Amino acid sequence: MKGKYVFKAHNLLLLALVALLNFIGILILQSASNMDTAIVSRQILGSLAGYVICLIIMFIDYHRLAKYSTVIYTVTIGILLAVLLLGAVHKGAGRWIVVPVLGQLQPAEFAKAGIILFFAAYLGKNQDRINEPRTLLFSAVLFAVPAVMVFVEPNLSTTLILCVIFAMMLITSGLSMKLIIAAVIIGSIFMALIIFLFSTDNYHLIPFIKDYQKERILSFLYPDQYSDTFFQQKNSIMAIGSGGFFGKGLFNTDISSVKAGNFLIEEDTDFIFAIIGEELGFRGCFGILFVYFIILMLILWIAIKSRDLTGAAICVGIATWIGFQTFTNIAVAIALFPNTGVTLPFFSRGASSLLALYLGIGMVLNVGLQSRD
C-alpha cells in the first residue's frame, strides 16, 4: 500500500555507516585544520544539525515532498539567484551568501538536493512519455535554468556534478538506449574538441571557460610548464605516497609531513584526501573507500526495492551525487583530473555540504521505509 511504512525495512546500517564516515571526517578535519577549534566546532554542529534533519526527513513521506516539487524548484532558483545578486566573493567566485545566525552558506549544495527531488517527481509523472521529444526538451530546459545559474557563479565543478546526476536520473527513468548512445557520442565529440583546442593552444576559442579554469587544465596537461599552478596536486600526490601502507598516524606533526610543512593550501576542503593518505596510509584510504562503496550499494539496493520511479530516481540521484563527487575529489587529489575545487562528502569543511547530504540521506531512508516486500 502506497505510503505504508515497513519499519522492518529500516536501513539502520546505512544510517550507522554515514555517521561513522562523518565521525572519521571530523577527526581528519581536526588534523587538517591544525586543531582549529572554530572550524572543528562548526563542523560538529553542522553534523549534529544534519543528523537531526536526516531523522526528521526520514519520516516525511517522499510522495508528500514530491507534491511540493514545483515549490522546491522555485525556492532553488530563488536561492541561486540570491547568490548571483548578493553572493560573497571568495577567490574570484561568488558562491556563498551570508545568512543571519547561520553565517555563510553555499546554496549550490542545497540546489543538488532540490534538483534531485524535483526531477524525481517530474520523471515519475512522465514515466510513460520520457522518450517523447517534447518531454525531453522540457526537462532539459527545466534543468538548464539552475545549471546555468550555478555555472555563472562561476562553479563549473558543481555544474558538471549536476549534469551527471541529471543524466543518471534520466537513464533510470527508462531513457531509450538509442538516445543514450547518441548522447555519449555527442559528449565524446565535445570533449575531444576541447582537448584538441587545448593541445593546439587554441583554448582561447572556448568562450565558457574562465582564465583560472584554463590555467588548471593547462597545468594538468603540461605540469612541467605550469608548475606554479600544478604544485597543489603535486604536493597532494607526495603526501598520499609518503603515507605508505600504515600511514604516519592521525594528528601527525612530524617535520617531514606535507601538512605540517604547509605545502597544501586547501588541505581541509579540496585536498583533504591527501591528509587521509598521509596520516592513515593505504589501509586507511581503502577502509574509507570501502565504507563509501557500501553506502552507495545500500542506496542503490533501496532504489531497486522502491515502490515507484520517483523513489528510485531519488535514490539514484543521491547515490550519483555522493559517488561522483567522491570520485572527482580523489581523482583531483591524485592528479587524474584537473583541479576542480570539489569537496569530499562528509569529510571536507563546510556545514552547507553536510546539511545538504544529510537531507539527501533522509529522503533515501524514507524511500526505504516504503520499499516493496
Main attributes?
mainly alpha; 13 helices; three-stranded antiparallel β-sheet; 373 residues
Radius of gyration: 21 Å
| Class inferred from helices and paired strands | mainly alpha
Number of helices: 13
The shape, in one word, is: globular
Query: Quick one: biggest sheet?
Result: 3 strands, antiparallel
Report the order of strands and helices. Answer: HHHHEEEHHHHHHHHH
Distance between the termini: 11 Å
Poorly predicted ranges (pLDDT <50, ≥5 residues)?
A: none
Number of strands: 3
Tell me the strand percentage band.
under 5%
Can you give the helix content as a percent range? Answer: 55-70%
Q: So what's the oligomer here?
A: single chain
Spatial order of strands in the largest sheet: 1-2-3
Kindly report the average pLDDT value. Answer: 89
Q: Count structural domains.
A: 1
